[in-house]
Fold Methyltransferase type 12.
Amino acid sequence: MFDSRATAHEFLDRPDCDPELAAASYRFMELVNGYFGGIRVVRRFLHAETAGRHDAAPLRVLDIGSGSCDIPLAVSRWAQVRGIPLHFTCLEMADHAMDIARGQLAKAGDPAVRLLQEDVFSHHPAEPYDCAVASMCFHHFSNEHILALLRRLRGFVRGSVLINDLRRSRLADFAARLLLTGTGMSAGVRHDALLSIRRGFTIRELKALLGQLGGTTVSVAPARWFRIAAIIRFNQGENT
């Protein structure tokens, strides 16, 4: 079960996903991101990207598959407190996620976070981004789609891409089962959460996949609470 990535689809992948299941799933993901490292990984990445930067303009960040926008909003609050200028453009396709995200953005009233209902595979920005972030998103893609997307991103992302995702293992599955039971999540949320882990990556597997990219510098490392953090830095002047 854990020797290779699962290919089954989650309920959230379906256009007709039940709105109540979607809302419960995003609440669970917000809990996991808040308490088990999802936000921390993005903060660490963007803190490094802005270190020593002398440009007064905000760092332009593309957030791919933003879901309820919990991570961009949390990181934007963190950055504002520290005087770090950031601007997020968040892409999300699913109607059920857009409904939740719009409510979150209206409540937050943060002009530094913009939401677009667009497919990243057809997104055409007016100007390049400085970097891109994808949290709990890449495990939804096949290996072929991951490589195709990264090759496309290098056309409008100047610097680097962070893949902030799930590390696949039996121990991660066991821990998730305990958390799902302890929080009383429904069978639908349980199904998607456990399938997400089986669709995740091992360190060796993701290194080998990203190693197929040319003109990049790649680092892949474990992060706390069964996460994986990969940074793909595009080498200036090189294309593939």
Residues 19-35 form the longest helix (17 residues). The chain has a mean pLDDT of 95.
